[in-house]
C-alpha cells in the first residue's frame, strides 16, 4: 500500500515516521529519517590546540570559534561520533624543520615525496611548522570540545614517511601506506551518511570528506563548522566537492533536521 504526500509516494513505513515529525516540516527535511537505511555519523576533524589561536603553531583563523557549534552537533543523535587527531612524530615528513634550506619554508615550500612502498608513485606536498606532535600540548583536543559525547578518537599521521590529511588514509594508492581504521569502523557500524566538520576546511576536512565519498558514504560537510588555512582556496575545494558528490550544508538549512 502507498499513500501520496505532496506529490511524492511513500511506503507506509515512511509515512509513519514522517507524520511523527512536525507536520509543517518540509518533506525533504524529514525524508532521510524516514528511510530505514539512514544511519549518520559525525566526524569532527583535528580540533586541536596547534590548529587554533592563541598558541597553535599552525593556527587557523577562527579555529576556536567553531567549538560551540561542534558541541551542539555532538548533542544530536548521530549513530557514531568520531573526533580525529593529527598525531605526528617529531621527524614527520611534513615538518619544514626536517628539510634542508632553501626549500624548507613552512606554509610555502612544496616537496615531492615518493611512496615508501613504490618509488614510482609520488606526491607534491606542502611543508608546515612542527605541529600536533605526539605527547605535546599542541596535539591535544581543545578542552572546550565536549569529548564525553565522542564515541571514538581516531589518530592519524603517525607514519613519519607520509602526509595524511584524510582521516581515512594517506594519499598514496599503489599501494596505500597507512590506514586509520576509520573506514572499517564506519562500515562495520553500517553507517550510510557521514557529516564532516572541524579543521582545516582546505586540508584535513577536505580530504576526509572526499575519502568518505569514495568509501561510498553520502557525505556532507557542515560549512559553518569549519575554518580554512587559506579561505581564498575554498572555491576550488567546493568544485572538488561538486565533482565528488559531496554537499556543503549549514546547521539550519534542514539537512540536520532528523
Ligand atoms: C592539517 C596541515 C597539516 C589539517 C594537518 O588538520 O588540516 N593541515 N596537517
Ligand atoms: Zn599534520
Automatic annotation (TrEMBL):
Named from the GO MF annotations, one term is:
nicotinamidase activity
Q: Name one GO biological process term.
A: pyridine nucleotide biosynthetic process
Q: Which Gene3D superfamilies match?
A: Isochorismatase-like (3.40.50.850)
Task: Give, as in the UniProt entry, the pathway in which the protein acts.
Answer: Cofactor biosynthesis; nicotinate biosynthesis; nicotinate from nicotinamide: step 1/1
The record's section on CDD domains has: nicotinamidase
Annotated InterPro entries: Isochorismatase-like_dom, Isochorismatase-like_sf, Isochorismatase_Nicotinamidase
Q: Which UniProt keywords apply?
A: Hydrolase, Metal-binding, Pyridine nucleotide biosynthesis
Q: Report the EC number(s), separated by commas if there are several.
A: 3.5.1.19
**For the Isochorismatase-like domain, which residue ranges apply?**
41-251
Q: Which family does it belong to?
A: Belongs to the isochorismatase family.
Query: By what name is this protein known?
Result: nicotinamidase
Amino acid at each position: 500500500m502507498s499513500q501520496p504526500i505532496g506529490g511524492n509516494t511513500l511506503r507506509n513505513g515512511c509515512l509513519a515516521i514522517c507524520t511523527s515529525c512536525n507536520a509543517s516540516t518540509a518533506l525533504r527535511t524529514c525524508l532521510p529519517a524516514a528511510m530505514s537505511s539512514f544511519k549518520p555519523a559525525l566526524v569532527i576533524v583535528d580540533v586541536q590546540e596547534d590548529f587554533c589561536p592563541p598558541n597553535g603553531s599552525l593556527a587557523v583563523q577562527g579555529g576556536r570559534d567553531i567549538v560551540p557549534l561542534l558541541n551542539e552537533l555532538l548533542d544530536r543523535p548521530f549513530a557514531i561520533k568520531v573526533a580525529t587527531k593529527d598525531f605526528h612524530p617529531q621527524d614527520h615528513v611534513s615538518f619544514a624543520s626536517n628539510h634542508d634550506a632553501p626549500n624548507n619554508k613552512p606554509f610555502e615550500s612544496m616537496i615531492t615525496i615518493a611512496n615508501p612502498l613504490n618509488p614510482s608513485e609520488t606526491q607534491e606536498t606542502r611543508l608546515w611548522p612542527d605541529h600536533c606532535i605526539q605527547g605535546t600540548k599542541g596535539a591535544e583536543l581543545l578542552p572546550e570540545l565536549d569529548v564525553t559525547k565522542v564515541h571514538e578518537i581516531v589518530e592519524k599521521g603517525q607514519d613519519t614517511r607520509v602526509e595524511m590529511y584524510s582521516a581515512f588514509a594517506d594519499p598514496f594508492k599503489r599501494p596505500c601506506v597507512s590506514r586509520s581504521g576509520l573506514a572499517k569502523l564506519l562500515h562495520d557500524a553500517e553507517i550510510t551518511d557521514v557529516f564532516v566538520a572541524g579543521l582545516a576546511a582546505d586540508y584535513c576536512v577536505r580530504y576526509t570528506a572526499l575519502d568518505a565519498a569514495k568509501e561510498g558514504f553520502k557525505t556532507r560537510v557542515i560549512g559553518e563548522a569549519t575554518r580554512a588555512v587559506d579561505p581564498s582556496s575554498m572555491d576550488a575545494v567546493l568544485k572538488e566537492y561538486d565533482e565528488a558528490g559531496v554537499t556543503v550544508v549549514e546547521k539550519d538549512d534542514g539537512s540536520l533536521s532528523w
